[in-house]
Each structure stands twice: as C-alpha cells, then as structure tokens.
Amino acid sequence: MAPAAGGCTPNGRVLETTVTLAAGAKTTIAVPVTYSCSDPAAANGLSFTWVAVADHGADDQASCGPGTLQSVACFDALADDDQDPADNRATRNGPRVIAQ
Questions:
Q1: Where are the beta strands (DSSP E) in 1-100?
Q2: Does residue 10 have a cis bond before it (omega within 30 degrees)?
Q3: Cys bridge to 37: 1, 3, 6, 91, which one at CB 3.0-4.6 A?
Q4: CA–CA separation, 34 vs 37, rounded Å?
Q5: Residues 36, 8: contact at Cβ < 8 Å?
Q6: Which residues contact 99 (CB under 8 A, 6 or more apart)?
Q7: pLDDT tens by residue, 2-40
Q8: In this structure, are residues 48 and 34 in contact, taking their beta carbons and an 8 Å threshold?
Q9: Is the pTM of this model over 0.70?
Q10: So where are the chain's domains?
C-alpha cells in the first residue's frame, strides 16, 4: 500500500503466486518493485506498507482479493486453514519517501 498523499505507486497487489512446499520447508520469494511518487514533497516522511499473506491450501482467494488483505473476511478465511493462525499474515513498514 502506498502513502495516502503524493500520488505514490505501486498501490495495490504487486504479486500473486502459488508455491508448493513440502512439510517444514521454507522458501524466499523475490518481489522486485519500483517505487515512485508524482509529488514526493506531499509524501515526504510517509512509508509504503507491505502486507503478505499465506493461504494454506490456496482456497481463500475469493475472501482475500485485491484490496482486501486487511479485511475481517480475509482474516477469518485464513485463520481456519491450519492450527497456527498467527503466521498467516505479516505487515511491515516498507520504504519511506524522502523528498529531494
């Protein structure tokens, strides 16, 4: 998600993919993104927000469509997939806009 001010992009889903892993396996998924703001001064000091979800079984796309990853419907859909709902979603502050 892009800062609300400054006409920043990207704003929305930048990657949707399916990965199949063996039990206990881990992976890293690269997500190359180019950031820009049409008015950097208006967004100065604001951060992009990264949201990632893991959908065990790949059955919750209808509840977790574009723009809905933070919704209660998506949270509920992901929570019933496994015995550990605490690791289904991660939100992190992303890059901060610095006007130059």
A1: 8-9, 36-37, 47-53, 89-96
A2: yes
A3: 6
A4: 10
A5: yes
A6: 40, 41, 43, 44
A7: 888 999 999 888 988 888 888 889 899 998 899 999 999
A8: no
A9: yes
A10: 8-18+31-96
